[in-house]
Design goal:
Layout (H helix, E strand, L loop, with lengths): L2 H5 L9 H6 L5 H10 L3 H10 L2 E2 L14 E2 L5 E6 L8 H13 L4 E4 L6 H11 L4 E3 L1 H8 L8 H14 L3 E4 L21 H13 L4 H4 L1 H11 L2 E4 L14 H19 L4 E5 L5 H14 L5 E4 L11 H14 L4 E3 L12 H21 L7 H11 L3 H7 L3 H9 L17 H4 L1 H6 L15 H14 L23 H4 L26
Length: about 525
């Protein structure tokens, strides 16, 4: 898709989407994102120029289909894959990537720490139509015997190599400074970020300041040559609820805000990585702190996990927090799989984590009233009420899984048109009963509830009911007289027939959009 778009940009000193946006240019990537998000191209351009939205799109990754991360776009989901020094190979990682693309990952991160890391990364890039991110520190550590053998130039060389391959965004742990290390001493779980712990080890072993921080402008020079976006890493994120929202976490966050400004001075795109274990009552506060400290740069959060007692089910404990984070402003959610804290995820773990997080992201979009977000829900609900089982399967996040669950008890094809499932059977299905009310003879009314009670209840309902919105126009009244069923074509609205939607302001009523130039 992008080969022709990016060819004309090669050789330019700065090829970032932010650079073009600030020059008033709507790139082909911005136009594509606008169509994909059902927004106006000028809105996309202004948000990228402002730094509130990023389009990770390295010019060396022509296979990429452009997407956007930002509060003005739909909530996105990242899937982490990658091998370890113990397990995994190129074939296995490509299988995981296939699952990521099949089940809707918006971006993928290759976190490989063993084997031929550049070869695995190149294979993933050449197969990936979504942005691919990395943590360069992992490859750096794999290349040396001791962490203190690394120099700042070694790190910069690895950055350039990965950028040349086409990596779209990189986690850079530049916010953890020497003076912050004592702040993690009191914690139950210490420093749980691998990149953060390795950088702390390097600083202690060498006596020097964090090289990502001291050489940040050199990083920006590399990033703007290829349009690599920063994903500024949360090295001091909490690894358990007891460590949430402490001084270590917020000291680093403040530095990430300052680094955001430095990157923007180079027209380099930035998103901020966020905390991993946060109790529910602190999630909104954390989203607001990031927004204020980092000047509304997109927030990319891991989870957060809302309880620490469910190993094996942390795709659930974290999806709860992810939905709340997305509602309160997180732009992208990094999935957690059932293998979290236990093992290297396999392909099934990738699927389970992705489904959980697609649910969380979609729930966040619904809560933020994004245009068209509920259209799919409405279409599936209509299919459910009409007992169109195949349409229900098609519209679900996991069509194969939904069909398999239905067919496990009612496998015969005849049941694909049945007006019941195995839960209620033909006699007790409420929607079937309701749908056929008009076919019943109506007895003479001989008894009613007290008129005052009814009037009071109806007045309460009218005052408090939420107005119907979205694809719902006017509900059909439940007829108590015989009626003919309407044709499916006039009552069923599918994703293919839903009308396009226009611009919107994701920040809510009264907000004024910023052009950012």
């Amino acid at each position: 898709m992008r080969a022709g778009w990016i060819q004309k940009r090669r050789g330019q000193a700065n090829v970032t989407q932010m650079h073009y946006a600030r020059a008033g240019v709507v790139t082909e990537e911005m136009a594509h994102v606008a169509q994909r998000e059902r927004l106006q191209p000028e809105f996309i351009r202004s948000e990228v120029a402002r730094g509130r939205m990023i389009i990770p799109a390295n010019i060396m990754h022509p296979e990429l289909v452009p997407m956007a991360i930002g509060i003005g776009a739909s909530c996105k989901v990242n899937a982490n894959i990658g091998n370890s020094q113990v397990l995994g190979n190129e074939t296995g990682e490509l299988e995981k990537l296939d699952h990521c693309l099949k089940y809707g990952a918006d971006t993928v991160m290759d976190l490989s720490t063993g084997g031929n890391i550049p070869q695995i990364r190149n294979a993933l890039l050449r197969h990936s139509t979504v942005p691919l991110g990395t943590v360069p520190m992992y490859e750096a550590i794999e290349r040396v015997k001791h962490v203190d053998d690394l120099s700042a130039n070694d790190l910069l060389d690895i950055i350039e190599e990965q950028a040349k391959q086409g990596v779209d965004y990189m986690t850079i742990h530049a916010g953890i400074l020497r003076d912050f290390l004592p702040l993690a001493q009191h914690r139950i779980t210490g420093i749980v970020s691998r990149g953060g712990a390795l950088m702390a080890q390097w600083m202690i072993a060498t006596g020097k300041e964090n090289p990502w921080y001291t050489h940040f402008d050199q990083l920006c020079e590399i990033f703007k040559k290829y349009d690599v976006a920063f994903s500024l890493g949360d090295s001091l994120r909490p690894g358990c609820l007891a460590d949430a929202s402490d001084e270590a976490q917020f000291a680093e966050l403040k530095v990430l805000g300052a680094l955001t400004k430095r990157a923007w001075a180079h027209d380099v795109q930035v998103m901020i990585e966020g905390p991993g274990h946060i109790p529910m009552d602190q999630i909104q506060m954390n989203m607001e702190k990031e927004r204020d400290a980092c000047f509304e740069a997109p927030f990319y959060v891991l989870g957060p996990l809302t309880t620490d007692i469910a190993p094996g089910y942390d795709h659930i404990t974290s999806a709860i927090g992810a939905a709340l984070a997305g509602w309160h402003g997180a732009a992208m959610l990094c999935y957690v799989t059932p293998a979290e804290h236990l093992s290297l995820p396999d392909a099934k773990d990738v699927k389970d984590g992705l489904i959980a997080y697609k649910i969380a992201a979609h729930a966040a979009d619904l809560a933020r009233h994004r245009p068209g977000a509920r259209d799919r829900d409405d279409a599936l609900s209509r299919a459910r009420y009409k007992f169109d089982w195949n349409e229900q399967f098609r519209l679900s996040l996991d069509p194969e899984g939904a069909k398999a669950k239905h067919d496990s008890t009612l496998p015969h094809e005849a049941f694909k048109t049945a007006e019941f499932c195995s839960m209620c059977g033909p006699k007790f299905c409420s929607m079937k009963v309701h749908g056929h009310l008009g076919e019943k003879s109506i007895a003479e009314v001989t008894e009613r509830a007290d008129a005052a009670v009814v009037a009071d209840a109806l007045a309460f309902a009218k005052a408090n009911a939420v107005p119907r919105t979205g694809s719902v126009i006017e509900p059909q009244a439940v007829s108590l007289t015989a009626r003919k069923a309407a044709p499916v074509a006039t009552t069923m609205q599918t994703l293919e027939t839903l009308p396009p939607l226009g611009n919107f302001d994701a920040r809510g009523a009264g907000a004024t959009p910023s052009r950012g130039e």
